[in-house]
């Protein structure tokens, strides 16, 4: 069973919004570092947003600052990425990543986000 599953991707017009969700099975995300990455063809996977294990510790890529928000729902064991004012350059496959304090890492299979008129 895949430990991390992303959902919520799709096609959206520029300026639109999408909410991605990373759901975990068999692991508790509450105590793990969780990040969202994205990858576009020909480019390396880049960090978009991260949520640390210390409450309310978040980081964002400069390109998404002010437009994307990462949040946790411990009751649902999910970490969401709210994306607003989407731009063409936000297009890509978005991956959820989690890491235990001792270094074990998990990746989801990705969800496609396409920003297109």
Keywords, please?
117 residues; mainly beta; four-stranded antiparallel sheet; globular
Summarize the structure.
The chain has 117 residues and is mostly beta strands.
Structural write-up:
The chain is mainly β. Helix content is 0%, strand content 50%. It has no helices and 11 strands. Strands 2, 4, 5, 6, 9, 10 and 11 form a 7-stranded mixed beta sheet that branches. Strands 1-3-8-7 form a 4-stranded antiparallel beta sheet, with no helix packed on it. It is globular.
* Number of helices, counting only DSSP H or I runs of 4 residues or more: 0
The residue-averaged pLDDT reads 94
Based on CA inertia axes, which overall geometry fits? globular
| H and E string | EEEEEEEEEEE
Percent range for β-strand residues: over 45%
Distance between the termini: 36 Å
By secondary-structure content and strand pairing, the structural class works out as mainly beta
Strand count: 11
Helix amount: under 10%
Query: Low-confidence segments, ≥5 residues, pLDDT <50?
Result: none
Characterize the largest beta sheet: strand count, sense, and whether it forms a barrel: 7 strands, mixed
CA radius of gyration: 13 Å
């Amino acid at each position: 069973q895949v430990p991390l599953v992303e959902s919520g991707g799709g096609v959206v017009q520029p300026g639109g919004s999408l909410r991605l969700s990373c759901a975990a099975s068999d692991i508790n995300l509450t105590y793990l570092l969780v990040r969202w990455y994205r990858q576009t063809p020909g480019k390396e996977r880049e960090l978009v947003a991260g949520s640390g294990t210390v409450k309310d510790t978040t980081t964002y890529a400069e390109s998404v600052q002010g437009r994307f928000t990462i949040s946790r729902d411990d009751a649902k064991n999910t970490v969401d990425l709210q994306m607003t004012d989407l731009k063409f350059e936000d297009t890509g496959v978005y991956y959820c990543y989690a890491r235990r304090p001792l270094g074990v890492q998990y990746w989801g299979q990705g969800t496609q986000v396409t920003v297109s008129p």
